[in-house]
Amino acid sequence: MSYFRAAVDATTGYIPGEQPKPGTKIIKLNTNENPYPPSPDAIKVLRTIDSEWLRRYPDPYAMDFCLAVSEVLGIPADWIIVSNGSDELLNVIIRACAEGSDRPVVYPMPTYVLYKTLAALQPAKAIAINYDQSFQLPIDELVAAKGAVTFIASPNSPSGHIVPLDDLRELAQRISGILVIDEAYVDFAEYSALSLVKEFENVIILRTLSKGYSLAGLRMGFGIANPQLLSGLFKVKDSYNIDAIATLVGAAAIRDQAYKNECAAKIKKSRAKLTSNLQSLDFTVLNSHGNFVLATPPEGNAEQLYLQLKAQGILVRYFKQPGLDDKLRITVGTEQQNQTLLKALQIKVIS
Ligand SMILES: *Cc1c(COP(=O)(O)O)cnc(C)c1O
User: Could you read off the pLDDT of 72-88 as tens digits, one per residue?
Assistant: First the structure.
């Protein structure tokens, strides 16, 4: 007999992008981290940590953080659930809502691989519906799959496309389960689906401080939905999922919208430049609304390029799966990092 449940034995687990030790001299464009430092206001709070905050258990609701989100987004604090990265919230949602084949998890493909992994561990049936070439949301098929949970990442990774609000609205209206709109990359996009939480009782929006706020190491994510929908999720989450430090540092970071917007503006500018530079090297590049681009090299030799770049100390993301194995997902770095990457590619492509 195995020590583990069959669902655990049957899964390989989620394989995150490589994380070299901090200080390693590497250009890291593989996990969509923000190349700029976190808000100076957040760092200031971090430096004032009082040991008394650590002696006690933290606030189970991370209310200091909720109040900051409430101010910034204009949403009541009881419409917010805070999590240890938005990955934890994805896990909580699946644990709360999905089970077996009667309560499946549904998502369009390609998308964030963790949805599939978490469903497999539950276990809940996962129904993946392929996007077509134009990345139109396959609404009819998604509805027909009858998910207890339907995940839509918008902007999506690794494609970078954003889903039109009318499509999300139609989907929310037609499905009977919950619609999770994963907005991990919203800070680099032109619009958000936030208004839908007021229109639909089955919609939850997921946000994170990992990408837009340069705080992937802090582990702060949150969900926005009506209190009735959140009540089931609160039962499932760990009581003390957010530590005392993250609550306060996160609150300061999210209050500093000016700094976040300034960094996002730089990244969007660099994204446009990186896109056109890759295109001049004959890469096919999808129009991205995130802090990364999905690029197909002219020779289709993505894996080889990935390995060559890695040998030179430049990490990008390569997904060895159908539909993606001829492409590279490249995080938008600083101008200097992008230039180094382009120079390395230029030599490869020409030789
Ligand atoms: C990065 C990412 C997340 C997870 O972010 P964390 O808050 O760091 O857990 C969730 N969804 C998508 C689509 C992402 O790319």
Answer: 999 999 999 999 999 99
First to last CA, the chain: 55
pLDDT in tens, 293-345: 999 999 989 999 999 999 999 999 999 988 999 999 999 999 999 999 999 99
d(CA 328, CA 305): 9
Angle at 203 between CA 89 and CA 114, to 5 degrees: 35
The model's pTM is 0.96
Residue 71 CA, ligand 1 centroid: distance in Å = 23
Cβ neighbours of 105 (radius 10 Å): 30
Split at pLDDT 50, 70, 90, the class of 123 is very high
By C-alpha distance, which of 286, 319, 330, 279 is closest to 133? 286
Residue to probe by mutation, ligand 1, list 65, 86, 114, 214, most atoms within 8 Å of CB: 86
Going from the N-terminus, what domains does the chain have, and what CATH number goes with each?
Answer: 18-37+258-350 (3.90.1150.10), 40-255 (3.40.640.10)
Give the Å distance between the CA of 290 and the centre of ligand 1.
12
Q: Tell me what pLDDT residue 144 has.
A: 98
Atom of ligand 1 nearest to the CA of 221: 7
**How large is the average pLDDT for residues 177-195?**
98
Distance, CA of 349 to CA of 280 (rounded, Å):
11
The SS3 call for residue 206 is strand
Residue 32, Ramachandran bin (φ over 0: left; ψ between -120 and 50: alpha; else beta): left
Q: How far apart are CA 275 and CA 145, in angstroms?
A: 35
State whether the Cα torsion 62-64-70-76 is positive or negative: positive
Pairing of the two strands 178-182 and 203-208: parallel
